[in-house]
Amino acid sequence: MGYKMRSIIELLEEELSAAFEKTGYDVKYAKVTISNRPDLCQYQCNGALSAAKEYHKAPIQIANDIVDILKESESFKEITAQMPGFINMTLSDEFLADVINKMAKSENYGCEKTENPEMIIIDYGGANVAKPLHIGHLRTAIIGESIKRTARFLGHKVIGDAHLGDWGLPIGLIITELKKRNPELVYFDENYDGEYPEEAPFDVSELEEIYPYASKYSKEHEDYKEEAQQAIAELQAGRKGYKALWQHIINVSVEDLKRVYTKLGTEFDLWKKESDAQPYIPDMVKAMKEEGYAHIDDGALVVDVKEESDTKEIPPCMILKSNGATLYNTTDLATIVERRKLFNPTKIIYVVDKRQELYFEQVFRCARKTKIIGDKTGLIFIGFGTMNGKDGKPFKTRDGGVLRLEQLFEDVYNKVLEKIEDRDMEDAMKDEVALKISLAAIKYGDLSNQASKDYIFDMERFTSFEGNTGPYILYTIVRIKSLFAKLHNEGIIVDEAGPIMPSVSKSGTDVMLSLLKWPDAVNDAYRESAPHKICQFIYELSDAFNKFYHENKIVTNEDENLRASYIRLCRMIGDILEKAIYLLGMEAPDRM
User: Fold this and answer.
1) pLDDT value at residue 1
2) How far is CA 169 from the centre of its chain?
């Protein structure tokens, strides 16, 4: 453990609180925020405006009382009272450098681990077996991965679960179609009692062709659909040949899914499936009936979840259909039972399309009402918007189909490769660099938007090396890396443990002020499940650094102390930027 760090806002509020107290005003008014007029000051306190009512004084009078006490403080270069009662603060360069040096010595640059670690499960996969990952799976994977990494970074224990769909009609359709194509396979012989083959009777590309074909065929042939439903019923009742086939479908699919998720930099700790919740269903349903939570409505078993305060209609949560079949609601509730039994989490976070909000509202209410989960466990729905094409409509391929995730990768990768074609690098290096830039283009393009909002996937803009983009952020980190490579090559050795000196330029001050926002950016991103807060921080810091880099001599500075100080500052900026992009699931190459 390094130095225990307090944020700049806490330090300033402490100083203001003492002044408010000394002048006889309540310390609750000593709230400090970053200035919304950076041309006037760096920080501000608007407490005098609120305090005026309580003390029946003009706000400017209260502001002046505070400023009179703090004028002599070494923390401020300037502190003034402005009409109608703002307290404007500009930090002294010495105080700013002192806080930066303390940050440099503390754990994770002031972004300390929590003292109360939580046990969190994040459900952010939702892919279906036998289907390739498509564009609709992108946002949950990217947003969920970032939320998971941020929570872990702050010391929480987090389990990421892929939660695969593997138990519904699609499996029945695949079994039915396989039987039609290859009736001689041992899986369809009910009298067979030997071992089933270890190798699947299909590969992933065959599997991905079978499902859409069978799905389309079943919509036009009712008897085929009934056969598929019968196959599912037999699978769920434990028919051995079907269970063996189902296992093959899962193995072949999961291997392929893992390959694509790895490309995306998404790693799940658990590859749980809908079917894993099945064993918990009978007892759960029994308890719901016995304790009077569930009742029969029109033949189906339901739990009423509406509340008096509801302004919109919340329909009952259906647990079993009239034919006794289970639904998504049933498996989602049973999955909560399983998660509680296995992990006893303090929070379960679902990263899902925001159009599912009503559905999850029903499930969460049902889980609470039926006491499947206690009141202390948070059930959190994070709904994201859609990723749209330039026409403003959900992203589609040219022929109107759903774009596969691998195809999106390839398109972005080729675009990036075009842009770095003239760089002097070996092909293998070029390939590695293009992969990292492509991933940053996709992820940053997504995460820099508020999760709940729709956004337009703009290939030109996202792959640009300028502006608020992933490649620009990586370019900034690479610039810092090459600065250190240059020092190394020229044999310049700097004691990096020494202090960072007070700033002597506006660009130096600005970059330090940007650095101070790091702990708050990460904590806010975690608290609000909002990765875009980290993106805002990264972009501002990158911009401030690039200005600083252009306006100051760093490696060639004649003043050795200043040069050493600049190099330490650059090291800190580079480290923080790399930690920050890691939280977004990105990685920077060594050169670009």
Assistant:
1) 38
2) 31
Per-residue confidence (pLDDT) for residue 236, from 0 to 100: 83
DSSP string, 490-514: TT----TTSPPPPP-SHHHHHHHHH
Chain Cα centroid distance, residue 282: 35
The pTM of this model reads 0.94
Rounded Cα distance, 378 and 364, in Å: 10
Spans of the chain below 50 pLDDT: 1-2
Q: At what angle do helices 59-70 and 47-55 cross, to 10 degrees?
A: 120
The Cα 373–Cα 379 span in angstroms is 9
- Write phi, then psi, for 320 (nearest 5 degrees): -135, 140
Residues 6+ apart with CB under 8 A from 233: none
CATH 3.30.1360.70 residue ranges of the chain are 8-91
Task: Take residue 345 and report the two structure tokens written for it.
Answer: 């989490």
CATH 1.10.1040.10 given to domain 119-165+273-386: no
CA–CA separation, 102 and 109 (whole Å): 8
pLDDT for position 398: 75
Q: How big is the chain, counted in residues?
A: 592
pLDDT of residue 401: 80
Alpha-carbon span 331 to 336, nearest angstrom: 9
Distance CA 99, CA 102 (A): 5
Rounded to an integer, what distance in angstroms lies between the CA atom of residue 348 and that of residue 364?
11
Strand pairing category for 387-388 and 347-353: unpaired
Which two structure tokens, joined as six digits, stand for 413? 């990768």
State residue 177's pLDDT score. Answer: 97
Which runs of consecutive H residues, i.e. helices, occur in 264-314? 281-290
* CA separation for the pair 151, 111 (Å, rounded): 12
**Predicted pLDDT at 77:** 97
First to last CA, the chain: 35
Bridge partners, residue 326, by sequence: 320
pLDDT value of position 4: 65
Concatenated DSSP letters of 71-103? TT-TTEEEEEEETTTEEEEEE-HHHHHHHHHHH
Alpha-carbon distance of 209 to 174, in angstroms, equals: 10
Backbone angles phi, psi at 352, to 5 degrees: -140, 160
Interior angle at CA 287, CA 234 and CA 324, nearest 5: 30
How confident is the model over 320-338, as pLDDT tens digits? 998 888 889 999 999 999 9
CATH architecture entry for 8-91: 2-Layer Sandwich (3.30)
Query: In 3-state terms, what secondary structure has residue 349?
Result: strand
Q: Where in the chain is the domain with CATH 3.40.50.620?
A: 119-165+273-386
Query: What pLDDT score does 432 carry?
Result: 95
List C-alpha distances in Å: 345 to 118, 280, 336, 369: 8, 17, 10, 18
Tokens 């956004």 map to which residue? 455
Residue (of 295, 173, 199) closest to 252 by Cα position: 199
Give the C-alpha separation, 537 to 237, whole Å. Answer: 54
d(CA 104, CA 510): 17
470, 443 Cβ separation under 8 angstroms: yes
Sole residue written with tokens 């002597």: 504
Q: What does the alpha-carbon distance between residue 372 and residue 339 come to, in Å, rounded to a whole number?
A: 10
Letter for the amino acid at 368? R
